[in-house]
Amino acid sequence: MSTDLMPNRYRPGEVELPRREAALIARRDNVLGSSYRLQYRKPVHFVRGEGMWLYDPDGRAYLDFYNNVPSLGHCHREVNAAMAEQAGRISANTRYLEPKLIDYAERLVETFPVEIDHVVFTCTGSESNDLALRIARLDSGNEGVIVSAYAYHGTSAAVAAVSPNLGDAVKLSPNVRMVSLPGPQGVPEAQAPDYFEAQVRAAIFDLNRRGIGVAALLIDSIFSSDGVWIDPPGFIAGGVAAVREAGGLFIADEVQPGFGRTGVHMWGFERHNVVPDLVTLGKPMGNGFPIGAVVGRSAPMDKFGTTARYSNTFAGNTMGIATADAVLTILQRDRIPDNALAMGRRLRAGLEDIAQRHDAIRAIRNAGLFFGIDMGLETAPPAQRQAQALDVVNTMRDDGVLISTTGANEDTLKVRPPLVCQAEHVDLFLASLECALARLAG
After folding, report:
1. What is the predicted pLDDT for the residue at 4?
2. SS3 sequence, the chain?
3. Distance from C-alpha of 161 to C-alpha of 178, rounded to nearest angstrom
4. Bridging pattern class, strands 214-220 and 144-148
5. Using one digit for the tens of pLDDT, what is the confidence trace for 80-110?
6. CA-to-CA distance for 220 and 188, rounded, in angstroms?
7. Which of 3.90.1150.10, 3.20.20.70, 3.40.50.1580, 3.40.50.2300 is the CATH number of 30-75+338-441?
8. Class of domain 90-333 as given by CATH
9. Which SUPFAM superfamilies does the entry mention (predicted)?
10. How remote is the C-alpha of 253 from its chain's centroid?
C-alpha cells in the first residue's frame, strides 16, 4: 500500500511555477488548513468549465477525463437553469409540503429494483454512508462493518473509521474488518466468488467471536479505490448472502458507479445481480450540487425512522431536488447510460490497441465509462510502477488532459470522464495517452 496519502500532488519546490500561481499558492497556504492538497505536480488553475472542458485564466482548454461529480459535464445549462429558477422562488426544507420532493422521490425509486422503495435525502455521499450505517446498526442490533481492503466511504468520523484508504493516521474502528478482493490477490475469475465469500465469512466469524456481530457489508460496487476491480459479475453474491445469514445488511455505495456510469445498468450493483438492502448516493446525483440520498428496503428504513431521530435541515431542500430532478430527466431523456456504454467500448478498444504497442500497460478493467488501467510490468518493483503511473498522469496534464491514479499502490490510472463524453473526446484522450507513453519510453 502506498504510504503517501496523495501521491499525485504538488510538492513545493519540485517544479517552477508562474508568478501568478506561486502567489496564489502562498496565499492559500497561509489561510487554508494543511489537509488541503493540490493535485498534479504542477497545479492546475481553472476559472470556468463547460461540458468536457475546463479552462485556465489564459483560455487554455483541458479535457476532463477524471471528474465524476459533474456527471453531465461542467456547468450543464439545463441543470443550472433548474437550479437558478428554484433559487429564485424558494429554498425550503422537507418539513413543509412540497410536491416536487415527492415527484422526484417517486421517479428516483422507480429506477431501482422493486424491493427498494423508500428514500431519505442527505447532502453528500459521506452523510449517506453515515446514515446507512446508523440504519444497519439499529436494524441488526450489531456494530460490525465489513469493507474492502482499500475502501473509501467518506469524511465524517463514522465513515472515516470504515475507510482504510485514508491512511494509517486515521484509525479504523475496532468494529471494522477488511476483506481482500480476488482480483488484486491474483485469484482466477472462476474462483473469485468462493474466495470473496470465504473472506467475508472469516470476518463474520471474528466479529461474532468477539461479541460485536455484523451490521453491514459496505462496498463500492465498482471497488474504485481498490483499483477498479469489477469482475467477474456476481462475485460478491456469496458474501452478501453470508452477511444476511448473520443478521447484517448489504449497503451498496453508488456514489461513484451509479447514475448510469457502468453503461448497461443505472446502478453498479446491478452488474452483480444482487439487490442491496440500502443504497447510498452522492453529489453526481445533482451534477455537483450538494445532494445525496439513502435508498432502501422499507423494513429497515421504517424501523429506523420510527425508533430513531434523523434531522438534516438542508437535505432534500427544494433547490437540491430541482437540480437532481433535472439531472435524472436528462439522463433518461438523452439515454446517457447508452452513451456511457458506447463510449466505454470505444475507449476500451483504443486502449487495447495502444497496449499492443506499449508494454507499460499491464491490464485494463472497465465497466462503461469507469476505467482502471494498470501501469508497469508485473515484475517491476511497486515503487517503479507507481512512478510510471504518476509520470503518465502528469505528462498528460501538461498535454491538457486530466486523469489521476488509484489502487493500493497508486499504480492504476483512474479514468472516469463525465458521461456526456463523445467520440472526439475519447480519441483525444487516447492520442494524449499514447503520446505520454512514447515520451516516457524515451
Report:
1. 63
2. CCCCCCCCECCCCCCCCCHHHHHHHHHHHHHCCCCCCCECCCCCCCCEEEECEEECCCCCEEEECCCCCCCCCECCHHHHHHHHHHHCCCCCCCCCCCHHHHHHHHHHHHCCCCCCCEEEEECCHHHHHHHHHHHHHHHHCCCEEEEECCCCCCCCHHHHCCCHHHCCCCCCCCCEEEECCCCCCCCCHHHHHHHHHHHHHHHHHHHHHCCCCEEEEEEECCCCCCCCCCCCCCCCHHHHHHHHHCCCEEEEECCCCCCCCCCCCCCHHHHHCCCCCEEEECHHHHCCCCCEEEEECHHHHHHHHHHCCCCCCCCCCHHHHHHHHHHHHHHHHCCHHHHHHHHHHHHHHHHHHHHHHCCCEEEEEEECCEEEEEECCCCCCHHHHHHHHHHHHHHHHHCCEECEEECCCCCEEEECCCCCCCHHHHHHHHHHHHHHHHHHHC
3. 12
4. parallel
5. 999 999 999 988 888 888 899 999 999 999 9
6. 21
7. 3.90.1150.10
8. alpha beta
9. PLP-dependent transferases
10. 8
Pseudo-torsion of CA 152, 155, 156, 159, nearest 10°? Answer: 0
Q: What is the pTM of this model?
A: 0.95
- Residue type for 18, please? P
- Please give the Cα distance from 397 to 253 (Å, whole number): 29
Indicate the domain borders of the chain. 30-75+338-441, 90-333
Q: What average pLDDT score do residues 296-316 get?
A: 92
Cβ atoms 337, 263 nearer than 8 A: yes
Residue at grid coordinates 482502471: 372
Give pLDDT tens digits for 256-279. Answer: 999 999 999 999 999 999 999 999
Q: What are the CA-CA distances from residue 293 to residues 104, 320, 351 (Å)?
A: 12, 11, 35
